[in-house]
Design a protein that fits this description.
The two termini are 27 Å apart. The longest helix is centred in the middle third of the chain and has 19 residues. It is built from 20 helices and no strands. It has 3 domains: 125 residues, no CATH class; 109 residues, Alpha Horseshoe (Leucine-rich Repeat Variant); 104 residues, Leucine-rich Repeat Variant (Alpha Horseshoe). The relative contact order is 0.06. It is mostly helical.
Length: 341
Amino acid sequence: MTNPPDDDLDRYRVFHPDTDTGEDEDEDDVLDEPAPALEAVIASLRRGEYPRSILVGLSDLGVRESALLGAVWPDVDVDVKRAVVSELADLAEERFDYTFHRALVTLLGDADAAVRQLAIAGLWGYEDTRFAERLIDILASDVSDDVQAAAARGLAYFVELGEYEEIEEELNDKIFDVLMAVLANADAPMHLRGKALESASVRSGRSEINAWIEHLYDEEESGYRATAIYAMGRTCNKRWLPRVLNETSSDDAEVRFEAARAAGRIGESDALPVLADLATDEDAEVRHAAINAMGEIGGTAASRYLTRLAQSAPESDIELIEDAMVEATLMADPLLLDDDT
């Protein structure tokens, strides 16, 4: 099981701060320097400064340090808080030697909805079941439906763990039931219900999942159709492939994008000719999704399509095509992973 692609995470970072610390840092210098003490981090945040060389001091907090951060955090400017949480999420994604789980969990109770959303996104992959219970509480009681939607998305990771029997069956069933209750709540905003479906759809063996996918797919608004197609991909069920491939000709770029990703996740080689055509789409994000999907499907046929594509592709797509060709080759022969030559 793998973490979601970057664009999956970005879907749920609805606030993208553009604040600037005014510092141009050398990444190597940051990594070579010892992490500062928490007191130095707090003093810097209060001044509105948050270079990475300071933020690494929030890694591996103890219980006492987490409590201290929580006590002073409300005094930090809201724009700084938003930027810091977003940066922590990026750092955690880029560097496995930094662990910001305790810091981000501490910030889940922030008064600002954007901070809470970003903290949830940054905690993707955190397997502590107490966090799952916290997400369930947020989904049930947060005053912001956007934060509730982020919590529903966060529960997707635990649904996946449940499919691999890596969490207790009781918790697995509880999470699924909570997500299905959100779906069944006609008073809940549709975007929240959509996120619940996306997360629950991994359990495609449940008949109600297929019924809800059909329901959202039939909604007139294209965003809901895109959500349904995304859920089709997460089921990894080839029953949806004809529907998915049909949507690659949609007038809506978001729908084409999700159709490409879904085809890759379903993983059937029958999708390759359609994806090869989609890899020449006028929309760059759609092209890149199609290229990635071909690599994800893998095999000799995918490699041939990608090789032909590279002959006429724009320069900006070449590196991505080459990466997809490597992935396709490894999918055809996983033993190549052990080849150091």
